[in-house]
Amino acid sequence: MAGSTAPDTLQLPLPPAALRGKAVDERARLISGYLCRVLTGALDVPPAHRVSAERSLRAQGLNSLTALRLTRTLRLALRVDVPVDLLLTHDTVTELATALAARLEEPTRTALLEEPPRTALLGKEPSRTARPGPSPHLLG
């Protein structure tokens, strides 16, 4: 269906680990296609139009609020740290995809989000009262 943004179309073409095994230019190409699909939904692009990989993201409707929302999507999909300024400082999808492809090579950043905590997915802070204190019979 044209213009569909069904969840299966918003998945990466390969898992992040498989993307890391690709050459950086191939990785950037795959990420670019993924970004265009994600941005089509995020920017509410009409079905008869497409997000351009070479046109300015700001000219296509990206603003700071949309960038904030997209960082979470990209972090979870790519399993890398994606600061919001990365989205705001790269002018085109192609530039952003190249920067994200390079981030997949950096193991210290990649390791940050290998397994997202359940609380991050639920948008909740961990309970501070859930920590067990010392056993009462040890205090005696």
From TrEMBL:
Keywords in alphabetical order: Phosphopantetheine, Phosphoprotein
SUPFAM superfamilies per the UniProt record, alphabetical: ACP-like
GO molecular function, one term: phosphopantetheine binding
Keyword hit for NADP: no
Annotated transmembrane regions: none
GO biological process: antibiotic biosynthetic process
Domain Carrier: 29-104
Region of interest (Disordered), residue spans: 108-140
Gene3D superfamilies: ACP-like (1.10.1200.10)
Ranges in a coiled coil: none
A Pfam family per the record: PP-binding
PROSITE patterns: CARRIER
Signal peptide start-end: none
Identification of the protein by name: Carrier domain-containing protein
Organism: Streptomyces boluensis
